[in-house]
Each structure stands twice: as structure tokens, then as C-alpha cells.
Design goal:
Length: 160
């Protein structure tokens, strides 16, 4: 895969996800931020594929970094995280891989079925693990900040 193909894939993915974001009713003022997340995830996935990185690692990184972006943008713009998360992570879903996995299963081609299934499971696992880790970390950080603020308020009350 050449860098021109990577750039072409990135542009195609971003334009397609603009349509998906509109279908999912992303508010017009937040479309740009959703598209930036889509570009980040798509670029990381394409770069990982270009360098032959394992699909599990590629998709964990291509999910984790944009998830952090989505969580931050959701708090900055006071919007639910899913508004940014759905268009951002959609390019990572292994649709054609799952299709061919089922195709080879019903065609009786066991070796191709197993190869495609293994890659699809790696991709889905990478996406799921990254979402869980990032979401859990953000909730933990939010809870720690809330506790810190409550302790500061208590100290102010005692000091008065």
C-alpha cells in the first residue's frame, strides 16, 4: 500500500463518514469535530495496515486515541460522547471481513473461513478493549476530580 493509497483511503473514509454523521443526526455545529475523530481513527488504521502491524494492536491504537479525543470533545462541547464516538469508530468495524468470514463458512472453505474469522475477532477485540479501557479511565479521572472538589469544599466550610 503506497502513501497515495493511504491518503485516498483517508479522504474517501472522511467523506463517507460525513454522510453517516448526518444520518445519525450529529448537530451541524459538531460535524467538524466528529469528522476530525473519523480522520484520526481512519489514518491510524491505514498507517497500521501499511506497516503490517497486527490487526489487534492496530485497532486498539486506532480506537484508543480517537476515544480519548471523543471523550474530551464531549466534555468541552457538553455533548454526549456517542455523538462523536459513532462516526469516529465506524471506519474500524470489519464489515467486509465479517461478510467474507460467513461466505467462506457457507462455501465450505474451512481454511479461508478460519483465517478471516481470526482476523475479525482480533479487530473486534482490539476495538472493544480500547473502548473499555479509555471509558473506564475517563470515568475514574472524573470521579477523582469530583472527590477532590468535594474535599476542597469541605476545607472551605471548615475554614470559615
Amino acid at each position: 500500500m503506497s502513501w497515495l493509497q493511504v491518503l485516498n483511503g483517508l479522504i474517501s473514509c472522511t467523506v463517507a463518514l460525513l454522510g453517516i454523521a448526518v444520518i445519525f443526526d450529529v448537530p451541524p455545529k459538531k460535524l467538524l469535530f466528529a469528522m476530525i475523530g473519523s480522520m484520526i481513527s481512519c489514518a491510524l488504521m491505514l498507517i497500521g495496515d501499511k506497516f503490517g502491524v497486527d490487526p489487534l494492536i492496530t485497532n486498539m491504537v486506532a480506537t484508543a486515541i480517537p476515544c480519548v479525543y471523543c471523550e474530551i470533545m464531549a466534555r468541552v462541547l457538553k455533548t454526549p460522547t456517542t455523538v462523536f464516538m459513532i462516526p469516529t469508530l465506524l471506519p474500524l468495524v470489519p464489515g467486509s471481513r465479517l461478510y467474507y468470514t460467513m461466505f467462506y463458512l457457507f462455501s465450505g472453505e474451512q481454511a479461508l473461513f478460519l483465517d478471516n474469522m481470526l482476523v475479525a475477532v482480533k479487530i473486534c477485540t482490539g476495538i472493544a478493549v480500547a473502548i473499555i479501557v479509555v471509558t473506564g479511565a475517563m470515568r475514574w479521572i472524573e470521579a477523582a476530580n469530583k472527590q477532590r472538589l468535594e474535599k476542597e469544599k469541605e476545607k472551605e466550610k471548615v475554614g470559615r
